[in-house]
Design brief:
heterodimer, A: 599 residues, alpha+beta, 3 domains, six-stranded antiparallel β-sheet, 21% strand, globular, B: 689 residues, Nucleotidyltransferase, domain 5, Dna Ligase, domain 1, eight-stranded mixed β-sheet, six-stranded mixed β-sheet, 34 strands
Amino acid sequence: MVAEAKPKTNLDMFTMVVLRRRIEAIIREMTNALFRSGRSGVLNTAMDFSCSLTDASFRSVSVALGLPVHVGAVHLIPEAISTKFGKNVAPGDCFANNSGYLGNTHCADFTLCAPVFYEGQLMFYSIARAHLGDMGFPQPTTYNPRARDVYEEGLMLPCVRIQRDYEDVPEVIDICRANIRVPDQFYGDYLATLSAVRTGERRLAELCGKYGVDVIKSFLDEFQQYAERMAVDAIRKLPAGTVSREMRYDSEIAEYPDGIPVRATVTVDPKDARVIVDLTENVDNLPLGINMTESTVLASCMTAVLNVLGADIPRSSGAFSRIEVRMREGSAIGKPKFPAATSAATTNLCHALTPHIQSMFAELADGLGTAYGTIGMPASCPVVSGKDSRHDGKPFVNQVIMGYWGGPALSGHDGWLTYGSGASQGILWQSSVEVTEQQQPIIVEKLEIRQDSGGAGTWEGAPGASCVFRARNDAVRFMVNSASRKFPPPGVRGGLPGASMTVTKQRADGRREELPISVDVTLEPGERLISEACGGGGYGDPLARDPEQVRRGVAEGRISRERADTIYGVVLSGDGFGIAVDKAATETRRSATRQARAR
Amino acid sequence: MGLSIAVDVGGTFTDLVLRDEGGVVESLKSPTTPGRLVDGILNAVGIAAERRSISISNLLGRCERFAAGTTAATNAILEGTYPQTALLCTEGFRDVLLVREGGKEDTYNIRIDYPAPYIPRHLTFEIAERVNAEGGVERALDEAQVGAALQKVKQSGVRAVAVCLLWSIANDRHERRIGELIERHLPDIPYSLSSAVSPSIREYRRASATAIDASLKPLVSASVGALESRLREAGFKGIVTLVTSSGGQTAGAEVVRKPVYLCLSGPSAAPEAGRRLAKSEGVKQGNAIVVDMGGTSFDVSIVTDWDIPMHREGIIAGHMFGVPSVDVKTIGAGGGSIARVDAGGFIHVGPESAGAQPGPACYGRGGERPTVTDANLVRGFLNPAGFAGGVMTLDAARATAALEQEIAKPLGMEAPEAAGLVCLTVEQNMVAAIEDITLKRGVDPREYIMIAGGAAAGLHAVAMARELGIKRILVPRVAGALSAYGILVSDIRSAFATSLLTDSAGFDFDRVGQVLAKLEGEASAYLDRMEVPAAKRALLFTTEARYRGQVWQLTLPLPRSRIGDQAALAELVEAFHKLHETRYLVRSPGDVVEFIEWNVMAVGRMEEAEAARPAVAASGSAARVGARPMYFRELGGMKEVPVYAGQRLEIGEEVAGPAVIEEPLTTIVLYPRSRARATAQGSIWVELQ
């Protein structure tokens, strides 16, 4: 059934405006509480955490805060509590969940959720999710793309009660501390995450007290109806159609010598105001950690479709209800079947799936959708570990986020430079070179745009980074889950793919060695790790790109003169500060190329 | 006390506040003259002289201090009109200004362009050199290569050069040598070195501050020179000062040396105004939220325990300027903010603004979309005849038509109710901005008073205070020129900084001692130049500290000006634990504390403002001047509500809500259950029940 186009509000608009802002303020205060007290670098440098809430029927009332992959399917968390504990949930409880089988994203995302009661009635769930610096994996990393099953991943917390009556359940804390490499840092991050959840709980209860349970309940109903109306309106403006597409994701296992296929069928039904994403044709679970989880599959689909629908649609259950996602249990892009490994469920295939769905809208109509952005982490985003002789051999383990770029082009806009991936969509912060060198015994010798790495197109994909690390006086271990080797991010509507990623080790004597997709390498003093990241894919025919943009790209050294000439068909004259477009020659060149193509 | 004058040159108006020898304060507004800012300033001085029936040279001759705030630097950055500037950076890091630090304000909006860097890539030149985190040289400076790069700089035709090398904070020799080479090869081009402008860690922030500093040099030296010489020609003999990012003032010559400190000049003085006004009105606890609402933007800053919080993350148009500044949050909310109803039937107000042209529908200049000013007119809060000191008449019919078309009809309500809804929505946006700046520090707005400045704040202050649980609002008599008043009363201030990494486990007493002595020397020399007498001087030392392993540091005031022995160190470390606990709720007593930077703020205290008496005493005639229908939701619709003339209120006279008090440049709306009282200084206190 299609929602009414006209608002039918029982609550007056005054109360709607106030309550919407109040709920946003509560989520912002939760976010603040977590940021203020987080200890590990992933939390307080990269901001890799999200706060959210749902009502008692698990409907999310999210605002535009937090990572898309974190908040796109957060309702699964309270659902898991309800399934597992039924009525056995009381004020003062808090549950920890990092299980991809119980609605969590991946193992390193530590998710806390507390029920919010008001006068004995369950009203909300307050939720905070934080990517921890260590989760007790066999290796010092928080993703293990080569894990064959869950037993090669980190500590599992399958939706367990971690607080009762507002007090820690000591056994659970003890198990965590015993399994995690940095127990004090873990406990600090746990307290920070807990403080976000409890802040949300307290504020939501106050809100119920101030406005009354009935007003809050009708607000929650009407807000979802509003979100749904917004989605309905946007879907009705789309052209009807069905698109099926397959893309390939880099494989390092024998079963898929030609890459792992990623498949989807998207149906847009403007009449019924519905979008259906069918993922059931995807491959079975892989003996790798890159299998996705229900949570990351749902979140990727919601993010992708809502990206197309527009920024003003609330990222809430009401809007999600117009998007149907069909997935299969036991599929790498679906629900995992135990004991499939899923610790890299927020990165690798997840990076491919979001833009894959967006790209199908580009096929549906010019102007819609996007090309593909960066897939896999470039080696400039390693988890680094070792011992630092500058501090008496003190051990360190840290995730560096540097040169995490390469956004997809879309109609009207070149790719967003510091995009990272569809899972974070630009929200992550990039590490400072100086802070990185102060914290680890490495020298960053280069961090610059990699020339010609963005996919050419009418709109160009954002470039990737060219980055070089050198070990100083200590051996340093680098772990990276890269991709985009054989299959760099494709372009759409005639746009070209971004350049392929490469990861190279350079020995002290200058000899070079290409490294595989899942990098685990130790640099000895004087050795270098050279990361060439992919760029995002382009959108539309390169011959239609504004020649002035091409000239600027050359003048700034972002693209080569050769690319301007051969791919963009732009004829330039002069050099240095005097580069200019030869308009007539460019037009001639471009029409000749078009004619040659037609033949 | 001598006569002093402060001006705040804004985009539209130049505000002037004058305090005469008897302590009488008056304020006035005069249009800003774009491109010839000094003309606008002298026009304003001319009006003040005329009011006293004396000549400009007579007035300026009596003037001891002339202080100015100017948005000229801020606007040059905002509008991208600063002169072309080159950046010299360490080889391999040409994109530092492009990348910034990542993060994205509006995560879910993909239809936006990535912002351009402050200095484009083709004007960024790489220098072969490298220093490491400990200040060691990994790669020596190649002077021949620098010479070649400077030739390219020359060809490019830029008017300024910024130099920011990695780790110049640990070892500035390469930067200083490049400075010497610039002087030799490009003697006429001003340049800035990052180790001098903002010697703090994180290459993007330092590069951005340095780029901004260099780019402003050609502009600022010309405009400060013009201001000083024209004032002198007009008869002024004292020191011309400018208000800086930190909300303090400093001599023009100092600003010319480090023009990046002109970022936010003007609005940066608003919290100081709030602090002084609260003190002079007898406020006991020093907690105030200072709001300033004009036509397009809403600025909010805070005063906590009489202290104005500073930060180093000030941003203009996406570019971080890095130097210590008062923390002012700005959102797009003002009289010109446009209201709309979306496809799902929800109302939104701003950030889009009708600006001055076409302006709100009621201006009759062709604007057809309803704004906050239209809503305030339709609900009867604004007097159509008395807007902006009576210089403008508002067209209520046009406002009603716009509001009906865009808001009332789609939502199925009457125009006055729609007007109330538009105002409630913009108030909610402003409340969110206030919560953001207070909650960020873990402070509770209910423990604060509100100080309302700007033409539009009085219309919304009571509603906002009610939502936040604030009980008292001060609408100062100088509300229309709040920043100019802050400029008048602000302290003389300048910051000096040095980077030096050491920690509590192996504290380098000798080098820290040398650094602090050097900072003290620089600060004292500055106060000498500013002719600050010894009794008025203060040196505020701070260090940037963190637990080892953390990446974000806290600004820690030094308990004393030297750290000479273990006892002093223990005291410093304990102060850090305490600060960390206040800000982050936890302390780690066993962890090593790292100190990465040492700073001093040199302060020359202004005399505490005594009661700033109004120029005109209360007239004695009845303050109640009439009544008109106004829409109050809690009164059930349009009701006849009394109107008072603020300037006729006797000292101590009270007005109970619902009522409206009209001042020449602002209107104060009293809701039911609130009452106003006039103070001896001509300000209005509003109490909420």
